[in-house]
Amino acid sequence: MIEAGTLEDLRDVGAYLQGHFLLTTGRHSDTFFLLARLTERPHRLQPWIARLHEQMENIDAHTIVGPAMGGIIPAYAFAAMADDTRVIFAEKSETDTMVFRRGFRLEPGERVIIIEDALTTGSSIKKVMDAVAEQGAWVSAVGTLVNRSSDGKVPWNIPFFSVLTMPGIETWLPENCPLCRHGVPLSRPKR
């Protein structure tokens, strides 16, 4: 039996890939976490969410926000583990910010938790934080399934939790990518 919350678990469901990849940030990497392969299997996702929920059980918030697309399913699964919790999502605008549409609103002073599938640079999560702040609400904490930031740290002063931390996975600007220089074909796994 493969333990949930591990790299082996991700490899088993096809969510841990190695090659030459274009990340959402525009950077390149030799490692990609296609967490949709995990979230498509509720019975495999649920133990990850239970671990994250256990880490965050003392965080005071009743609204869970997931960034579209990767954060929607984990945010919903996380919210389903608590009573009196709602879940909404933020999505990209035409100007590459994150916004709330579909009638989603936050009240001034409302506390939220942001749940995302993976963190690389934190730029998507920061855009969601900005969208939350724009409505006068507060981010109490951020949780991810996988933290693949280069040093395992995050660029903000809000409590951060992750089920699996994988520091040291390199990313490169396209012009500095050694895989491009060696002619390794670039893959876009989310397509």
From TrEMBL:
This is Orotate phosphoribosyltransferase. Pathway: Pyrimidine metabolism; UMP biosynthesis via de novo pathway; UMP from orotate: step 1/2. One of its GO terms (biological process) is pyrimidine nucleobase biosynthetic process. It comes from Sulfobacillus benefaciens. It catalyses: orotidine 5'-phosphate + diphosphate = orotate + 5-phospho-alpha-D-ribose 1-diphosphate. Homodimer. The keyword Ribosomal protein does not apply. Keywords: Glycosyltransferase, Magnesium, Pyrimidine biosynthesis, Transferase. HAMAP family: PyrE. Residues 48-155 form the Phosphoribosyltransferase domain. InterPro entries: OPRT, Orotate_PRibTrfase_bac, PRTase-like, PRTase_dom. NCBIfam families: pyrE_Therm. Belongs to the purine/pyrimidine phosphoribosyltransferase family. PyrE subfamily.
